[in-house]
Specification:
The protein is an alpha+beta fold. It has 22 helices and 19 strands.
């Protein structure tokens, strides 16, 4: 009930009360009179009834005035004061209350105004500090950007899900060079914000490196880092150093790993250069030996008696001396570079105890076997490729378990001068040397993992050996892996690193606040997901009748932002004639398609660009039909969820007659640029989709699953191509 209505009812009630009281008093007096008194008074009252009525009305009016004044002070005044106070708090902090209609309300207004002045002063102080903090953060961001742009090393920052959160231009250029995807028209980027680093590296390799880091943190190692060497899908060789990003943690909790930094070096050229040098030395050595043989033959020819004896002896002495010196130098060179002539693989140094602990975790987790450790030298360092070496250890244990029913293995690590002995010990049935040789030469496959490498390949990488030995007295046998040792690394006080004081304070961009990956995509909020918005241009409108894609354009939406820099824009050779009618629509001519890659090469690149994202398109059924028709010939399948802005428009505005992209853009206030080009349409679709998300939320459609269900109920969802 409004204040004015309550005030009117209060005044009316007061008037009725006064009139009622006066009427009741008159009736009570009249009833107390005797009949004689009534007869005597009646002639006096009859001519004065009007006056009595006027007196009653005046009394009622006076009561109304008094009640109005009371209501003004105690009902309407506080209500108006509350409205004014709401404006001060909600919209206009500079507004102030006017004095009230009563001394009490006036004092309240003065107190509220004083509090408002204090609040405004505090707000101004806070705003000033916020501006200063923003300037400081912006300066830090600019410094970070400048530092990263100047680094000669590629740097990529990821969260624990493997999502790329930060990278420098050097990394972008390096990965572009490493990609085997087509690069014309800016297509084929393999990294970008929100993309998965697993498009570049094997997931198991990153998981292994993270486990090594976490083990070193548990051991309070001074340098909890991991190093590994790997090859990309394009065959390039990378050396990677991984460092953890530690969360600050509460006062009573230990810091935890919230992400990781990858520092990358492309060592392909160095590796190839060293290999060529080895080949050159090999050629030089073998070629020189052949030349020396010829030279010796010539020296023997000098022994014919036709030559003067003294001259012949002098020549023979010179030839023999030169041959002997050359042979000696070549033998020394061959001996010096004998090791480098073998297949070389970059190795990294690590503490032997860490290697044994990693082997234990892998065997227990992957194979569910018990492990024990005996006689591990805590001072021993090894130089290994830990990833491939642990694959070899796991493979050997799996064969022991499957073929000889071994249920427990023991690990031993001892120093042997320049070598380290890593022993894999078990009790049980003996095996033949032929069995061991067969295991060494088979590609490693176990626990759902497979590798093209054999155990022998891994051992040769380490320039080592593998032996089978038996301990007859204890009825045990063991594989002994001979590995290269490394010099112990200098140890720094662990607390210096764990405090993190030497790290730059730029991890305040909310980069590591990611949602739980365990939740199904359908349960994820639209505002949380990463999207690939794409569009295609085609030779015609009938994919089932042979029309082909001639251009794919796509961009990404990450954290509610359209990242135009993260784009895919590629022309495609359709391998068929381009009708003139379609050229009039999209402006792509046959000459523009000459020399462009065919769909068989473009589609894998686009699939990698859109991996682990939700696809968004306008009239997506049309574009997806073209992609689906290529599944059999390319082996590429787009299995991720798809949202259609055409269907979502019908959900949001069901009464609208048109749901064409131009009409939707006009309703949503999106400027249309570059229409009927794949990239232009993708950008417009992305802008429209971002404006749709809050409108869908107002309708209670917040998750991907809810958006898909709402889309499927529209008429347009039944259109087939």
């Amino acid at each position: 009930m409004s204040v004015k209505l309550r005030q009117a009812l209060a005044i009316a009630a007061a008037c009725l009360l006064v009139v009622g009281v006066m009427a009741a008093a008159g009736i009570a007096v009249w009833r107390d009179l005797s009949p004689e008194e009534r007869d005597a008074i009646e002639p006096i009252l009859n001519p004065r009834l009007g006056l009595l009525f006027m007196i009653a009305m005046v009394g009622a009016g006076a009561a109304a005035v008094l009640m109005k004044s009371f209501a003004q002070d105690h009902l309407l005044g506080p209500s108006l004061l509350a409205d004014e106070l709401g404006l001060i708090v909600g919209t206009d902090p500079s507004r102030r209350l006017k004095p009230g209609s009563s001394p009490e309300l006036t004092r309240i207004a003065e107190s509220v105004n004083a509090l408002a002045d204090q609040r405004r002063s505090l707000q101004e102080d806070v705003e000033t500090r916020i501006r200063e903090a923003r300037l400081s953060v912006e300066e830090e961001r600019n410094r970070l950007a400048a530092l990263m742009s100047e680094l000669n090393q590629s740097v990529v920052v990821c969260n624990l899900d493997g999502r790329i959160l930060l990278y420098n231009n050097r990394a972008r250029l390096q990965f572009r060079a490493l990609s085997d995807a087509p690069t014309a028209a800016g297509g084929g980027e393999i990294i970008g914000l929100g993309r998965s680093i697993y498009a570049v590296f094997e997931r198991s390799l990153i998981v292994h490196a993270l486990e090594s880091i976490q083990e070193r943190i548990r051991r309070q190692s001074a340098q909890p880092m991991a190093n590994f060497v790997t090859t990309t899908r394009a065959g390039q060789l990378l050396r990677v150093q991984m460092a953890p990003v530690m969360s600050s943690g509460a006062d009573d909790t230990e810091p935890t790993v919230s992400g990781f930094v990858l520092m990358l070096d492309n060592i392909t050229r160095n590796f190839e250069t060293e290999t060529k040098r080895d080949q050159m030395l090999h050629t030089l050595t073998e070629g020189s030996r052949s030349s020396l043989a010829n030279l010796r033959a010539a020296a023997e020819m000098l022994e014919y008696p036709d030559l003067d004896a003294e001259l012949k002896e002098r020549f023979l002495s010179v030839v023999r001396d030169e041959v002997q010196g050359l042979s000696k130098r070549l033998d020394e060179t061959a001996n010096e570079f004998a090791d480098s002539l073998k297949t070389r693989w970059p190795l990294d140094e690590m503490l032997g105890a860490d290697l044994v602990a990693a082997a234990q975790r892998r065997i227990e987790k992957k194979l569910e076997l018990r492990t024990k450790v005996e006689d591990v030298d805590p001072e021993v360092w090894v130089k290994v490729d830990s990833f491939s070496l642990l694959q070899a250890v796991g493979y050997l244990v799996s064969r022991l378990s499957d073929e000889f029913e071994v249920r427990e293995v023991r690990l031993r690590l001892t120093s042997a001068g320049r070598l380290v002995h890593l022993d894999l010990i078990w009790s049980g049935q003996a095996m033949s040397t032929e069995t061991v040789m067969a295991w060494e030469l088979e590609p490693m496959t176990f626990a759902g993992e497979s590798s093209p490498l054999t155990v022998r390949d891994v051992i040769e990488r380490h320039d080592g050996e593998i032996w089978l030995q038996r301990e007859k007295t204890q009825h045990r046998a063991f594989f002994r892996l001979l590995l290269p040792s490394a010099a112990p690394q200098d140890q720094v006080e662990a607390g210096i690193f764990l405090k993190g004081e030497s790290r730059p304070e730029y991890y305040d961009f909310d980069l590591f606040k990611q949602t739980e990956v365990s939740r199904a995509l359908d349960d994820r909020l639209l505002s949380e997901l990463t999207f690939t918005v794409f569009d295609t241009e085609t030779t015609g409108l009938n994919p089932s009748e042979g029309d082909e894609i001639i251009q794919i354009g796509a961009t990404r939406i990450v954290n509610g932002k359209l990242l135009r820099s993260e784009s895919f824009d590629q022309l495609v050779d359709p391998l068929r004639e381009l009708p003139e009618a379609s050229t009039k629509i999209h402006g792509i001519t046959p000459e523009m398609l000459v020399g462009q890659p065919p769909m068989a090469k473009v589609l894998p690149a686009f699939h990698a660009f859109a991996e682990d994202t939700v696809l968004v398109a306008h009239n997506a059924a049309f574009d997806m039909r073209f992609l689906q028709l290529k599944e059999d010939s390319t082996g590429i399948r787009f299995s991720q969820p798809v949202l259609d802005t055409l269907l979502l428009s019908a959900v949001i505005h069901p009464a609208q007659e048109s749901h064409r992209l131009e009409a939707i853009s006009e309703r949503m206030g999106v400027n249309i640029m570059g229409r009927h080009t794949a990239m232009g349409d993708a950008i417009v679709t992305g802008e429209v989709f971002l404006r749709m998300i809050p409108l869908l939320a107002e309708m209670g459609i917040r998750t991907l699953g809810e958006a898909r269900q709402a889309s499927e109920k529209t008429y347009y969802a039944r259109v087939k191509y």
